[in-house]
From TrEMBL:
It comes from the Bacteria. The chain crosses the membrane at residues 40-64. Keywords: Membrane, Transmembrane, Transmembrane helix. The keyword Membrane applies. InterPro entries: GerMN (IPR019606), Gmad2_Ig-like_dom (IPR018911). This is Gmad2 immunoglobulin-like domain-containing protein.
Amino acid sequence: MSDGREDVLRRVLEAEAAKVEVRPDALAVIRARTARRGRWLPFGAIALTAATATAATLVVVALGGSPAPDRTAPDPGAVTAPATTPAPATSAPETSAPAVPPPSRSSASSGTSTASLAVYYVGDDGGKPRLYREFHRLPAGDGSPAAKVRAAVTEMLTQESADDPDYASAWPAGVRVEDVSIAGSAATVHLSAAPPDDLAGQQLVWTVAAVLGGDPRVRLVVGDRPAGTLRKAPALDTLASLWLIGPGHGATVARTFEVHAAGAVFEATARLTVRAGRTVVTEKTITLSAGAPARGEARITLTLAPGTYVLELYALSAADGSVQHLDDHTVTVR
């Protein structure tokens, strides 16, 4: 841009990234986890240069550390479910309806309440392992905060529980939640094993924070021994740059439905492409409520004929026009 704002922002972010120690196997780990699901980004894998790898590394928290929470962006946690807004009336014979969430992979017990809970997973954001969020309707015991945390963390630990096959858990199979207790702004989570790495720790603390709100302290207990305290790392360094919040992957929607997008991108500008097979049905520019480094949101209404579509949310590079930060969901319009 002629005012140089993009260059200034890039220099600031590169300066911060230069302070981070690169974990050399980060991309290999997330690529291995998602590759086994049989699907990768349709635009292909992106090679990492040394500078890109440095900028891509998550700022993570050692189990004993407590970095200051990010104060430059609105809190993406503390949200219990995607909001639904009635769509404007159209000439279509079918009226608007909110997205129908796919069935949860957890089975509800008789007599327990259910809740729509945010669960964080790991996905590839242009070669960077980042956290993505889904909402799952889960059995929540007595409906207390402790019961909701237990339900959300149990779902997070369950292998292949994500609706979107591009997402995975950073935790190994077999880790169990043994107990959860809440005291003020702190949660104590008893697990059968410690997080295998810092990324898994961040997946846990962001999932807990989505239930409790804010930046709670998450005290870990493994077996009968304390294993440290986690806090959220800054959103800009931890969360994916763009989320397609709704409709969720696999959802069935009415002909007129709402698309809910969120993220932190340059000049708050994202693109939405709707495809039916290889055919581009529509393309729209989306302006989020805030630009990077803050996280903004936007909602737009689409009307489509019945069928199966892929919704692609992404940003375009100001340097070369390439696609960046792609998040895509397949939905069925009835």
